[in-house]
Amino acid sequence: MRSSQYGSYWIVAALLLATAPAYLTPPLAAGESESEPMDPAPVPPQASPSGFRLGEPRMFIGGHAGINFPRAGSDLFDMVTRELTLEKSDFRASVVGFDFGLIFRSRYAAVFSMEYSRATAASESRDFVEEDGSAITQTTRFTQWPVTATLRFYPAKMGEHVGSYAWVPARFLPYLGGGGGFLYYDFNQWGHFVDSQTLEIFSADLQSSGFVPTVHVVGGIDIGLSSKILANLEARYSWADAKLSSDFIGFQPIDLAGFRISGGIVFRF
Amino acid sequence: MRASNRLLDRSFAVSVLSALFRMALQTVLLLWFLPGFAEDRTGAANGVSPLAPWVGTWTIVEDQPSLGAMGANQAAVVEIRLTSDGIGLDISRKSPNQPDVKEVLIPDGNKRPVEEQNCSGWRSAHLVAEAGLIVESSEMNCKDAGSIATSSLRIILAADRIAHILALKAGGQTRLAVRRLSFEYDLPSAPDSQTGWRAVAARTELSAPWNLETIIRLSKIIDGQLLQAALLEKKTQLNLTPGSLKEMKTARLPNGIIDLLVALAYPDQFHIEKNGQVELRPWIVSSPGSAGPSSMPSGPLSYYPGAFYNCYSPYGYFYGFPFSGLYSAAFCISYYSPFWWDYPIYIPDNGGGGSGGSVGGGGGGRLTSDQGYVQIEPRDTGRHARPREGFVPSSGIYRSGTSSQSYPTNYGSGTAASSSGSNAGGSSAGGGAAAAPSASPGGYSSGSSGGGTAVPRQ
Question: Looking at chain B from residue 263 to 302, which residues have their Cβ under 8 Å from any Cβ of chain A?
């Protein structure tokens, strides 16, 4: 008990250390008015600016990780959660992604993202067992791979020009946006199933996959850790659906909508 | 025992305190007798004139030694001494075979009218003591040279170096000229001036790098182009931070100044070119009656300090060799000042915005309102890739192989393998439902017989 308590302390300490740069780096916020005393002594030439940039950034790349919460609103999910020992929460999955952004007009960014999430859940037939009493098991895997473009709008300017070359980034940059793209999905079940008519147990590999269009809205915030590195927090809600393949007969289109939250690191240059 | 310990502690404390007191007293006495400690280094605090650091004998630093050797008077020195009332500087250029060129500078901020034979107008100067600066401005209407406005800075750059940065506004142009002078020796007859190491110390202190606060203050009283030139002369390098940049913006420092401060802070990332510099050529003059060049115009009997004269005036004209003909469209003026008299100021009448000039040679386009004294360009890194020797571009491309995806073994009772999901868009082909396992809203279907039979859970 005590060790687990200390373990949680260690986790908190690690998190604080990981986020410490956000608090310890020099102030970057646009609009701040504090001034620092200038050293009258000659200073050696600075190799590169600290806390500001020479020139406005034009693009960024970054990576993010998070959790995907599929809405799982179509009858396919109703069926599998009814017949198998699955819950809709079993389709939640971790997400990893990569972003590439182009910044323009100080308040906008076009972000091209690629993500990957896969939920794999083992289950049993909810109502039936083998004649010897053993469970009838199967595995369900739900994969999503969206490739999207998002237009972000930053209500506050990303930074402030001072003169023609110096650019002081803002510390906190909330944004809203929307976009679309394509989503590759793969819904796959394999294992043993029960024929609902004959109660026959059979093995099968059922799969439906394909590319479908998707749209989404996002809201998030970039937090400046330095003039080049940002932390990013984002929430995204996506809409998409797809007709199922011949392995799944008589279903509504599979609901691929869902909510995703993520955090990441962005390198601005 | 305890009482004796307490006594020991008390005596120890008393001895420490008395030692500290003695040390403090000695330090105060030492500093009291050290010359110059108690006074303000600028000299203002105890009656010494704040102009005293300028006093001394100076020589002009040649921008172009080779040209200077051709005609300038090499033995000329500039003597700067306090005026008798101590409120101004008496400046005179002295040369063995030439009449003195004299100027009196009173930096009290008052406009003084100039009414001379050839020029009329006003001059004004004031001292920015803590920055080691004398700021001047004038407007002159001269018979020979027309209407000319000037603003200038005299600045202490180092213990042995001063400079005069002169901006000339005439004929729709603004041009900048920089004259540097090097300290030679103290004036022997200057009993009330700071001499020796005290003067050196005062000049050293006044030549200290400007901080941002000083630069912002100077930007309110000095023309931006002059300030840019001064920042360059002082080789100003600030430790820039987001806070200092914000301070610059809040203080509405002109963009040209901010850019220059940024460029000077990161010299390896910017290239700085100077615009609007004048040509400074040494006098090569000939009196109208003589056959060849001499070194200086003779007898400046009719010249007046601060006034401008045409280089081609009857008092002595610009002989021109080897520049004759090249300057046919030139605007050449001579500024009657001990700092400048040896060098007529040549302003090319190119009228254009212009490219930058080199430091020594001058040139460059005129300054315009949107173009500062300096032109700053981000520096090219100079790193460019080139093919290796013998490199032959490949005509082919690499193709990525198509990976085969394996799926879990299909143990389905149907004869058809499960569809592996290649049905893009998920179109449903319901015809195969009878032969292959499938799922439907009602549940799963094996598609054909085989395998065991399920029983309800207990």
Answer: 263, 265-270
Number of H helices, E strands in chain B: 7, 21
Interface test with A, best of B157, B210, B240, B407 (most A CBs within 10 A): B240
| CATH code (residue B256) | 2.40.128.20
Domain over A64-268 is classified CATH 2.40.160.20: yes
Residue B125 lies in a domain: yes
Using CB atoms and an 8 Å cut-off, which of residues 205-224 of chain B contact chain A? 208-213
CA separation for the pair B283, B323 (Å, rounded): 11
Domain boundaries, position B84: 52-283+328-378
Domain boundaries, chain A: 64-268
Residue B16 lies in a domain: no
More confident residue, A130 or B311: A130
Mean pLDDT, rounded, for A56-72: 96
Q: Which of A192, A202, A214, A227 to mutate to test the interface with B (most CBs of B within 10 A)?
A: A202
Question: At residue B11, what are phi and psi to the nearest 5 degrees?
Answer: -65, -35
Segment (H or E) for A76: helix A75-83
pTM confidence score: 0.69
| Band of residue B282 on the pLDDT scale cut at 50, 70, 90 | low
Asked if residue B283 lies in contact with residue B311, where contact means CB atoms within 8 angstroms, the answer is no
> A57 pairs with which residues across the strands?
none
Q: What is the mean pLDDT of chain A?
A: 86
Query: At residue A102, what are phi and psi to the nearest 5 degrees?
Result: -115, 125
Q: What is the ipTM of this complex?
A: 0.77
Look at residue B13 and tell me if it is in a domain: no
Q: Which among A27, A197, A200 has CB closest to B451? A: A200
Helix pair B242-250, B212-221: axis angle to 10 deg: 20
How many domains in chain B?
1
**Band (A260; pLDDT cuts 50, 70, 90):** very high
Token couple for B202 = 């005062």
